[in-house]
Structure formats: C-alpha cells, structure tokens
Amino acid sequence: MSFITTFLISLGLAMDAFAVAIGSGMALKKVKLYDAVLVATFFGGFQLFMPLIGWIVGLAIREAISSVDHWIAFLLLAFIGGKMIHESIYEQEGVEEAKAANPRNLYILLGLAVATSIDALAVGLSVSLLQTSIVELAVVIGIVTFVLSFAGVYIGNRVGNFCEKQVTIIGGVILIGIGVKILVEHLSAAG
C-alpha cells in the first residue's frame, strides 16, 4: 500500500474523531493542554489498536473468503464512508452527544473513543483480506487521529460547530474512493 493511500485512509478514519473532538472542545469553557492531549490520546490510541484487532480477525477468516475478499473490502469501506456521510447529513448524533458531554469524564471519553474507532476495526479487517501489512497503516492512523483530535479540541473551543458536518462528509468520500480504488485495481489485475 502506498504512503498516499495509507495517509488518505488515515485521514478518512480520523474525520469522525476530529468532528467529535471539535464537539468536545465546544463542551469545555476553557481548554487546557491536558484536555487536548487526553482527548487526542484516547482517540489516537483507539484508532491505532482497532485496525490491529480487525486485521487479526481477518487473518482468521481470510482463507474462507479469499475469492471475494476485494468485494468485501470495497463493501466495508463503501459502507463506512456512506455511513459517515449519512450521519453527518441526517443524524449528527455523535457530535451532539459530545457537545453535551464532559470530555474530562474518562468514561464518556472512553465511550467516544470506542464509537469513533469502530470504523478503524472494519478497515483493519479489509486490509487483512488484501494481504497487506497493518503496522504502518495502524501507526499512521493513530498519529493522524492524534494530531487532528488535538487540534479539534482547540478548534471546537474557538470556532464551534461551523465545520463539523463538512469534515465528516469529506472523510466518508475519501473512504469510498479508497474502496473503489481497491476494487478497480483487483478487477484490473484479474482481468
């Protein structure tokens, strides 16, 4: 997997966490460095480990589904991207909950970190089906999510909810595009 593809997948996955970090920043009257580091560590850490878990699960089932693995990878990425777009346009539940919740509460932060990293679990599963290494991807996902979440807390505290919706839509489009790229490359190689 090229670094550009790795970075784009990381960017797409980080958008949910970024949007929720913006909401977290909005929930705080005054943001301290500790707040931004805490949110970024939770979100970046979960985004780093969830693809690894998905990859391990994928290794266990790869042989059984090897003839359709490219379709599964495409469908998972398209579903995740579509879900992100749909939620940002119609629901906005995660961001609204983050605004009302105190991100300094570790239980709330844990819940938000898990919720924003489920997509990374599915991407890890997809990567295992493509027989691609996960370590570089997981590390880049974690770093990109950490940096964007850190910035998101400060942005949310200063700007508010101006760009949350657009950020999540962009992330969804990126993931769908990567899914299409995987499918086209595999079908071109097979044909």
Question: What does this molecule look like?
Answer:
Helices cover 84% and strands 0% of the residues. The protein is mainly α. α1 packs across α2, α1 crosses α4 and α1 packs antiparallel against α5. The longest helix is centred in the N-terminal third of the chain and has 29 residues. The two termini are 21 Å apart. About 4% of the residues have low confidence.
Task: Indicate the overall shape.
Answer: elongated
Main sheet makeup: none
SS-derived structural category: mainly alpha
Averaged pLDDT: 81
Gap from first CA to last CA: 21 Å
Number of DSSP strands?
Answer: 0
Count of individual helical segments: 7
Order of helices and strands: HHHHHHH
Query: What percent of the residues sit in helical stretches (DSSP H or I)?
Result: over 70%
Q: Which percent band covers the strand fraction?
A: under 5%
Radius of gyration: 16 Å
Low-confidence stretches: 93-100
How does the SSE layout of this entry go?
Layout: H1 3-27, H2 33-61, H3 69-91, H4 93-100, H5 106-129, H6 135-159, H7 164-190
Summarize the structure.
This protein has 191 residues and is mostly helical. The chain is built from seven helices and no strands.
